Amino acid sequence: MRIIHTADWHLGKRLEGKLRLDEQEAALVELDEWAKNVQADIIIVSGDVFDTAVPSAEAEELFYRMAVRLAKDRPLVVLAGNHDDADRLDAPVALAKAANVYLVGGMDNSHFNSDFMKGGFGWLRFTAKTGEVLNLAVLPFPSKSRMERYLTERYEDYSQFVKALISRCVECFGEGVNVFASHLFMDDCLLSDERTGNAVLLTKEVLPDADYCALGHIHKPQCVSKSKNAYYSGSLLKYHFDESDDKTFIMYDSTKNEVTYHQIRSGKSLVRLNATDFLGAKEQLEKAGESHAELIYESSVPLSPSEAEELRSYKNLAKLTIINKAVKREILRRREQSDEELFVSYYKAMRGTEPSEETVAAFMEVLGL
Predict the structure, then answer these.
(1) Can you give the CATH number for the domain in which 98 is found?
(2) Which residues contact 328 (CB under 8 A, 6 or more apart)?
(3) Which residue in 48, 100, 26, 36 sits closest to 251, CA to CA?
(4) Do 82 and 35 reside in the same domain of the chain?
(5) In the Cβ-directed half-sphere of 44, how many Cα atoms lie within 13 Å?
(6) Would you state the pLDDT for residue 356?
(7) Is residue 138 within 8 Å of 169, Cβ to Cβ?
(8) Is 294 helix (H, G, I), strand (E, B) or coil?
(9) Are 219 and 116 in contact (CB under 8 A)?
(10) CA 314 – CA 293 distance, rounded (Å)
(11) Are residues 356 and 236 in the same domain?
């Protein structure tokens, strides 16, 4: 069985205010074409379809349109991530099912029963045209506030809570191909530039024994556990200027027990440019072409308002960072000064005269120095 694994589409995400739906659509079209070429049996999206819990109408329209396209020749299973509103994702579940799209925001998947798809608590069982069976344990982002009601026992420790949920999901494992899909933040993984917030790190021990673990949440494609055959597919596009890794889709071939990457070629590159004068800045932006650019302008001569406006008129400029070298040097100089020297400088700037020895002594006494 050929299983495509993708995650972290973040549809509607902006880059410094620039909307990138056209790039996201191009990447999803690329996914559809690759799925056809490799004759994929199923596609799994391991969370963070949208960038916000309340996505724009344009982002939702893109998702529904591309979901129908991707599911035309094989089922599309979509899990809710921490950026998604699970209830909102679940809302059109009946219509989605009719289009061969299976939206998983909660744990009860019994409503997905059909001739080739069966559902239960935390799992789906898919029978391919070849007769092969996929036992798919599916755990949307395990928010304790949302999912604690599914367990009879209460867990103070988040890792134990997640492990208990996973143990329920993998009850579907048996004869056939056993795959676990979820949106988790695993320990020791390599980050791109994710804003993880208060996400709790989970150790690899929580992962089940499966033929393959399809994970979402981390934007850098990687294997997080060889023994568990657990992988992050990475994000759909580069979403931060600090990201240097290639973006990929993953295919797991259960017959060969083989994992292959497909590099996503759609989407503009993100480049970081450096300039020390206005003409050099313009030259850098012109060379950057169609890329999204962050321009770091570092000079002791500040840009005039008209020069800054002209630079911002470049369509490929996403972010302009101005560093005044003179101010930077002054900051560094002040860092080298003692508390007494700093006080004297401040006093002179405020009063226009040197402080008396008594005033300086009083100040140092207050500091306890």
Answers:
(1) 3.60.21.10
(2) none
(3) 36
(4) yes
(5) 32
(6) 87
(7) yes
(8) strand
(9) no
(10) 10
(11) no
Whole-angstrom Cα distance, residue 367 to residue 369? Answer: 5
Sign of CA dihedral 103, 106, 110, 116: positive
Closest CA to 208 of 167, 263, 268, 264: 167
Same domain, 16 and 165: yes
Are 28 and 145 in the same domain?
yes
Number of domains in the chain: 3
In this prediction, residue 92 carries a pLDDT of 94
Examine the fold and report which residue of 227, 243, 263 is the final residue of a domain before the chain moves on. 263
- Tell me the CA end-to-end span of the chain in Å, nearest whole number: 74
* Residues of the chain where predicted confidence (pLDDT) is lower than 50: none
Residues 287/307, Cβ–Cβ less than 8 Å? no
pLDDT of 334? 61
Report pLDDT for 125.
97
Q: How far is the C-alpha of 9 from the C-alpha of 62, rounded, in Å? A: 11
Contact between 6 and 236 (Cβ < 8 Å): yes
**pLDDT tens, 55-72?**
999 999 999 999 999 999
Q: How far apart are CA 238 and CA 318, in angstroms?
A: 14
Tell which residue, 157, 181, 189, has the closest CA to residue 80: 181
Q: What is the DSSP string of 297-330?
A: EEESSPPPHHHHHHHHTSTTEEEEEEEEHHHHHH
Both 216 and 285 in one domain: the answer is: no
CA-to-CA distance for 72 and 282, rounded, in angstroms? 46
One domain, residues 120 and 216:
yes
Domain containing 314: what range? 270-329
The rounded distance, in Å, linking the Cα atoms of 133 and 345 is 77
3-state secondary structure 33-66: HHHHHCCCCEEEECCCCECCCCCCHHHHHHHHHH
Instruction: Please tell me the predicted confidence (pLDDT) of residue 107.
Output: 95
Strand partners, 255: none
